[in-house]
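Posting for a labmate who doesn't have an account.
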Amino acid sequence: RYHKCDEICNLEIEALAAKVGCRPSASVNFRQARRRVASPEIEREDTFSMNYRLHCVTPGSTIFYTVECSPASDNPVLESPNITSSNLQTPNNPVQASKNRLPILEEYSAKNKPCLGDDMLPSTITLKAVAVCMPDMCCSSVVEMVLKAEKLEPPVVTFDRVSGLVSIVSTEDNIPGIVYKYTTDGTTPSINSLECDGNILFDPASPIDLTFQCKAFRAGFRPSEIARTHVLIEKVEAPTAIPSKSKELDLSNPIVTLNCSRQDAQIRYHCDIRVISDGSREATVDIENLENVYQEPINVDVDLGKEYVITTAAFCEGCLHSDIVKVAYQIPRCDPPELLQLENGIIQITTKTNNANIFYSINEDSVNEGSKLYSRDDPAKVDIMATEEQVVRAIAVGPGVQKLSEMAQLIVSPGKVATPAIRRQGLSNEFSVFVGTTGARVMFAVDSVPLDTAFDSGKIDKDKFMQYSETEKILMDFSKAGIYRIQAQAMKDDLVDSEIATYELKVPKLSPPQITRCVTFVKLETEEVDGAYITIYYTVGGKDPVPGAVGCNV
């Protein structure tokens, strides 16, 4: 047995056989020269990696390593005489440093490689390794690789907001092979981040606000600190017009002022007068056509039936111009009247404009300030027994500078009950019918056709109508696929029957459920149908599932 793994010697064994009553045998000698294991080789895994690969050409050898930092006054120094089984750390032989003063050597493997991490302080880092092949051979000589882990200086990063160019200037011109990695999402740059060759161009025509971060990397050096710059391409806030509405315009002094939140911004504008047609407010003036530089308030001079359009935008050096703002001014008008039919043919007419006079006409081609004046004491009233349609027209004329409103009208059908409304209760098969005419009774009918066909006519024969009751509602049977239709009509004595209201509902055929057996349960699934709440019923034991039956589960 060899007592020391680093001892080079010749092993000599002499043996003989002896037995009582016999002469001893001749002695036999065995000699073997103990050789040293080849020294391991150390190499970096790749250009930028701080991981190292170890290799020994001696078959059956095991490599152990340790990392030493200098200065390190309290660290034991690895030398060949210090290598014993007590400080060789393997998965089956953990070593506690507190129990011996010898340096701990970790066993090298594909999963346990020496790594001189980026977070190590600037110092001299020494990787030492030794190969062991006990007990037959003496351990190898200790090999080492010294790495001066100096930190690179960060680059100088600047941003030009006019061109949108980010420039990266190196501060380590005497060190070749430096690469720069950057991020724009707030994360720390790493060796896997995007690489830049000195310039990064951002679109100067698009607003942007981010932090550009960059680090320098090179094999044999610690990465630099992060160099940062704020990439900001601002968009000027759009100018505002005061007043911004026609109703706020003082016609005795019709002027408009333009303001911008940035004091150094220049406001440009374009004015146009056009005839009011469709009320469009879309900007039709390009940014290049804003030829006027705003310096003093704009005088708005416009006649009734026309509008004064101001198109404006704000500009600032080094920033994107604002959005185009378009403001249109008209001579203020009153809010148009609102007409509502009440009981007994009374028409209620109101307007949102305070103190406005309302003029109305019934069955006349026009209405003007010479028409009848509306008041609560003398409201408008139509003939509820008329057999033809009646048209009520109204305008509002405001006080002061406010001009007359646009005309509003209401068409009153001759003595006809209001058309009922058919409503479904959520996704259920229950339906209700509502009618606005007090005292009217409702008749309804239900019909259905297959999915691939259509109804023959738009109405159901009145012979199929049934009396509707609010307490019973309408319950539909959707057990079969098809197109279902509900029709309802309201009736009242001395009034014409209402129009027939129709509610159609397409009920598709559901796909059969898919049954999937799992480890401890059974999963039931079916295809979705838009707007449908699907319930799956199932039984266990062979019976067909019938909703509501005993043994049928949901």
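Reply:
Got it, the structure tokens are right above this. The two ends are 79 Å apart (CA to CA).
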